[in-house]
Amino acid sequence: MKAIKWHEGMQITEPGIYEGIPLEEYHGNRDLFDGPSISKSSLKWLLPLHGGSPKAFWGRWKWNPDRVEPTSSDALVFGKAAHCLLLGDEVFSEQFIVEPEKYFNEKTEKEVKWSNNANACKDWHKAQADAGLTVIKADQLQMIRKIAEDAAKYDLVKQGILNGEIERTLCLKDPETGIWVTTRPDARPMPGVYSDLKTTSSLDEEFLSRQLFDAGYYLQGGMTKLVCEALGLPFEEFYLVYVLKDDVPDTTHVPISGTAIERGERSVRWCLKTIRQCLDAGEWHGARPFNEGNQPIYMKPWAADRLDEFLDREERSYPQEEAA
């Protein structure tokens, strides 16, 4: 299937593969598709096991004209900049600017250390935002460059796991619910193989296994498989390429298991049905833990055991007359 070139102002009405959609359009433009659309990043707010609910989802969903605008963070900026440098899908200087280390203080008529509390620095930040640039600190850029140098030496990266079709949007309108399902893997190095670059603070297996769920990567794999199968595209593997955010960077990769991808696909299907029901009813209910409040809440066994041990020990130490 050939990719369709997207252009500014274009509304997507047909399923397929699209190239050239800016990330801001993909995540923020309510009218990018001719109907409501979902992506992996929004679904975590819906799933109860992620602490979500229809209310939490609707309050942040781009289809809601009164949604809460997402806020950025140093971690998000770092990840976005790392993607830009390592994937090469965007010109870094057109997206980012490095925060200066000093600014000219008009009162002292000297260059002084940069302070984001100073009016001159606030004005500079506003000017960059108005120009559509994301500000990154010099030490962050230095670390990203070290990470990029390390990744470039990794065998699978040299073999092209982050090359091929970069940042293509795969999408379809779900025939059962009428909701657009969209996914945007970082790379498709060959037919049936997808990869996504992830920055991480640890390469510990236990940490990465938790992150597979906590960060919703299993949803990304499941959504990609669902869309590929609906478009008649092969789907064989979804690789996570990890780069370690550390003074001594490291690079590794791991495929998402078939069982995790299957759970992701089933979760996406549940989300689609739930969203459709809420849209039709015009109601987005809040969280309903413990069987909608009809089930009592218990301590976790480890907490109950520790508390019992403490109380039993203390009670045994009471003087006899006090215990009587």
UniProtKB/TrEMBL annotation:
Entries under Pfam families matching the protein: DUF3799
Parts forming coiled coils: none
Keyword terms: Hydrolase
Enzyme class: hydrolase
Protein name: Exodeoxyribonuclease 8
Domain Putative exodeoxyribonuclease 8 PDDEXK-like positions: 67-284
GO MF: hydrolase activity
InterPro entries: PDDEXK-like_dom_sf (IPR011604), Put_RecE_PDDEXK-like_dom (IPR024432)
EC number: 3.1.11.-
